[in-house]
Amino acid sequence: MKRRKFLILGSVFGLSSSLISKDNNIVFSESLKRIEKTIASVQQHLFPEGSQIPSAQSMNATQFLLETITHPTYDKDIRTFVIEGAEELERREKGKFTFLSEVEKEQALRAYEETSYGSSWLGRIMTLTMEGMFSDPVYGANVKEEGWKSLHAYGGLPRPTTRYIKL
Amino acid sequence: MKYDAVIVGSGASGGAVAYTLCKAGYKVVVLEKGRLIKREEFSKDELAYCRRDIVTPNLFDEYHTIEEKVDGKWVATPTYESGWSFWNGNIIGGSSNFMSGMLHRMHPDDFRLKSKYGEIKGANVVDWPISYDDLEPYYALAEELVGISGYYEKYPYEPPRSTKNFTQPPTKENAVVKLIDKSCKALGIKSLVTPRAVLSKDKGDRHACYYSNFCGSYGCSSGAKGSSREALLKPALATGNLTLMSNTHVKYLHAGEKDEVEYAVVVDTITGKEKKIYGNIFIVAAQAHESARLLLNSANKYHPHGLANSSGELGKNLIFSAGGSGQGELHKESLKHIQFEDLMRTGLFVNRSILDWYFIDHWWDGKFKGGSVEFMFEHQNIISRARKNNEENGKLVWGKALGEKLVKRFTQSKSIRFEIFNDWLPNDNCFVTLDKKHKDKYGMPVGKLRLEAHPHDIKVGKYIAKKCEKVLEEMGAENIYSDVSSVPPQNLIAGGCRFGDDPKTSVLNKYCQSHDIPNLFVADASFMPTGGSVPYTWTIYANALRVAEHIVQILQKKPLL
Q1: What is the β-pairing status of strands B28-31 and B520-522?
Q2: What is the pLDDT of residue B558?
Q3: Strand duo B445-450 + B431-439: pairing
Q4: CATH number at residue B285
Q5: In total, how many domains does chain A have?
Q6: A114 CB-near residues (< 8 Å, 6+ apart)
Q7: Cβ contact A53–B396 (<8 Å)
Q8: pLDDT band at A121 (very low <50, low <70, confident <90, very high)
Q9: Per-residue pLDDT tens for B503-520?
Q10: What is the CA radius of gyration of chain A?
Q11: Which of A161, B44, B232, B393 would disulfide-bridge B15, Cβ 3.0–4.6 Å?
């Protein structure tokens, strides 16, 4: 059974009213800009260079994530959660997460994972990164099918020619 | 315009009724709230089809509330909160577009469960008003029309057939079936070829399966899968008698003083405009929980408790398929009897099932109704397989360790899975009503589903799961586990409009015609008082063909009313 666990667990600060109530594009684009580097940095830590699967950076995983969570097909509560979870990480690390060394990042993320909220958020970032890396290249993040090639697993035919069935 | 027949829903049953009536020369309209996706428009887009609500309604627009017992109290949760969608493919052809197509006929004893096995305390088991013999010709007809491939072997638990064998031979099979057969044989178990609603040979303009590796959960791009859209609606359209209205949501049916449905009130899901659709006969085929909801939502001053509800039974005795599933990994280094390369070949089917535990009659275990088992590979979706392998001891695995783990998992092993189907015993705590608070975006009360399984179901499921685990062990699988629980599979839903001979205890008569309103039929799985121990789809196709034949007879005697 699927459950939006984070809704049950609740955000540590509650879902911020500006994001929930207005759902307006300006608020969102500002929030997205603010957290973009943090998310990119987390994705790159989870999917680094030199792994048997491609790195987040080489697959444009952050762009995919931002395009995905702002698409109408994406759950708006989870979109808010993705943004707030990044803000919470930065609060924990005093706004310096992206400047930490790899060892410090590992410590910071493992400590964040100890909280149920942080664990849920990291799981979500991982899912969003895998969705890009292993979905059809039409979505922009399985560059040259490198994600599929690394696992020797390929999407079926016919491939989509548009994203989200032309939605 | 007044149609001879108005059908609500374009899935397996709606398609079967439309096909029969159009072929007989009647003017039919099918109302489907989803859009049309044509054969050539389908793709194997995991993100779109399997990970987003694109072929089902957005849960913030249309949803259900689900009542479950928490600490002894019934708690209702809207599905937009839980994410637990009870929609199963809302496009032309319905969820039959997305089925895996493993089909079985019900066994003759499934039609007389109460007489055969007696009452079970807390379960509302009754015999069906028809027998297997009544339905058999329609199972045969569905097999031919839908294009079910398979191979029949006479076996005690295989229902008898009026035709010798399948006209479509089985689809091509992965070498793992040799391992399954060998292992079953070693354990004294009979493995049988699973009938599948997938063509192995061309049939008219439908092409044989091209083994894409992504069948279940996806639309078919060759027309091989026997969906309502391919097998029934397209030939129905070819008669010139079918009007297919997509993006048309039915809010309610109107029946006046005369105990007759006069029209359906529908809304165009794109423009929001409402209109009335008139007909002589109305056939509801919206999937069990939604069909009951529609009839309840059709209450008015003449029918204050909803249509077809003089018995008070409407929405009650909703059933699912009980059981569960299990899995084990076949590893390169420990694989026996078959080549690893053959195991890893993609696209080919695992057409194997076990019916040995359909009825248990054992000196020690006792005598009770069991269930059927299907074997299959773990679904080949890449994103979902990757996600399932990103944890260890409750912690996420990331970094280089994740890369290593995923590559090993994808290239050095393959998971084989079993699914168990046993009876979900109908009971007083499994039903659908209207939610008093929540409404969908069209302003109509949503369906509230109370869900509780009878403890017996779990006992049976676990009994069979243990046997299946032994088969996986014999196959040499590792990390074997099974999961049998009381969580209902939302894609295997039936009941809510029981058929029966007594109008006081059933909603429909044996032709799935309302006892109260003669021009109203319910053709989907709602009629089933008990569900058998196999997936419903073949029975839904067969029964809808049977019901449609009866409707033709009624229409031939016009004027009906």
Answers
A1: unpaired
A2: 66
A3: antiparallel
A4: 3.50.50.60
A5: 1
A6: none
A7: no
A8: very high
A9: 999 999 999 999 999 999
A10: 16
A11: B232
Q: How many other β-carbons are positioned within 10 Å of the β-carbon of residue B71?
A: 5
Residue A122 has pLDDT above 80, yes or no: yes
B266 and B274 Cβ atoms separated by less than 8 Å: yes
User: Looking at this protein, which amino acid is placed at residue B354?
Assistant: I
Query: What domain range includes position B104?
Result: 2-556
Identify whether A158 is preceded by a cis peptide bond (ω within 30 of 0).
yes
Q: Distance (Å, rounded) from C-alpha B94 to C-alpha B12?
A: 7
Torsion of CA A114, A115, A117, A123, to 10 degrees: 0
A11 — pLDDT class (breaks 50, 70, 90): very low
pLDDT score for A26 = 66
At residue B524, φ and ψ (nearest 5 deg) are -85, -160
pLDDT digits over A47-71, tens only? 999 999 999 999 999 999 999 999 9
- Rounded CA-CA distance B83/B63 in Å is 10
Residues of B whose CB is below 8 A from A109: 398
Q: CA-CA distances (angstroms) from residue B480 to A138, B378, B468?
A: 36, 13, 10
Cα dihedral B276/B227/B426/B353 (nearest 10): 180
Q: Which stretches in chain B have pLDDT values below 50?
A: 560-561
CB-nearest to B399 from A51, A135, A154 is A51
CB A124 within 8 A of CB A101: no
Range of the domain at A15: 5-166
Per-residue pLDDT, A29: 77
Q: How confident is the model at residue A32 (pLDDT cuts 50, 70, 90)?
A: confident
Q: How far apart are CA B552 and CA B20, in angstroms?
A: 8
Residue B561 is assigned to a structural domain of this protein: no
Count how many Cα atoms sit within 13 Å of the Cα of residue B304 in the half-sphere of its side chain: 1
Closest partner CB to A151 (pick from B37, B46, B407): B407
pLDDT above 90: residue A166: no
Provide the shortest C-alpha distance from residue B67 to chain A (in Å): 14
Closest approach of A133 to chain B, Cα-based (Å): 8
Q: Taking a contact as any Cβ pair under 8 Å apart, which residues of chain A between 91 and 150 contact chain B?
A: 106, 109, 113, 119, 122-123, 126-127, 130-131, 134-136, 138-139, 148, 150
Residue B345 tokens read as 């070949």
DSSP state of B427: -
User: Could you give phi then psi for residue B271, rounded to 5 degrees?
Assistant: -90, -20
Check if the beta carbon of residue B170 is closer than 8 Å to that of residue B149. yes
What is the structure's pLDDT at B66? 97
R_g (Cα) of chain B, nearest Å:
23
Beta bridge partners of B449: B66, B432
A16 has a pLDDT exceeding 50: no
- pLDDT band for position A90 (50/70/90)? very high
* Helix (H) / strand (E) containing B435: strand B431-439
pLDDT of A5 above 60: no
Is pLDDT above 50 for A10? no
Give the separation between CA B190 and CA B174, rounded to whole angstroms.
Answer: 18
Count CA atoms closer than 13 A to B45's CA, side-chain side: 21
Q: Is the pLDDT of residue A74 over 90?
A: yes
Structurally, how many domains does chain B consist of? 1
